[in-house]
Amino acid sequence: MKLLTTVLTILSLSFLSSCENGPSSQSVEIFPLKQLSYTDSTVSYAGDTLSINTEYFVIANAPDDKVALREVVESYNKETLSVKDTQKYYAFFRMFYRETDAIGRDYVEKHEGYFNHDRIEHHGDDRILVVKWENYGKNVTYEFE
């Protein structure tokens, strides 16, 4: 089953990279927003300390098709994340946003005065996928926005 998934991922990425959208080919690229990523912890009712890791990414030329988007993100996660990384935390979240004029590949939050803030939370319409590993990596879910 893993071999089939890997083959389908490679074929999908090959197909996506060979498709032309206008005069030049636009490839899908994923850019980490490292300055926004963080690790937090909380204490359960039983008194256990639970750590939560959250990472943010922008996808340039993101596919509109959910299957193709999932395959691109799965491939990226396999390249950049090990199973041990997800098992370190009670919950591990990866938030993927579509690249737009408002949230680009070099996006940084802005705090320019008391009422003038631009935070990642303000761009919920641009979020296209959240990948969650919960229960120390045992449960994985893909939530499309």
Characterise the protein shown here.
- By secondary structure, the protein is α+β, with helices and mostly antiparallel strands.
- Helices cover 26% and strands 33% of the residues.
- It contains 3 helices and 8 strands.
- The chain has helices spanning 2-18, 66-80, 83-87; strands at residues 29-32, 38-43, 49-60, 91-98, 110-111, 117-118, 127-134, 139-144.
- Strands 1, 2, 3, 4, 7 and 8 form a 6-stranded mixed sheet that branches. A two-stranded antiparallel ribbon has the order 5-6.
- Helix 1 (2-18) crosses helix 2 (66-80).
- The two termini are 27 Å apart.
Notable characteristics:
145 residues; alpha+beta; 6-stranded mixed sheet; two-stranded antiparallel ribbon; 3 helices; flat
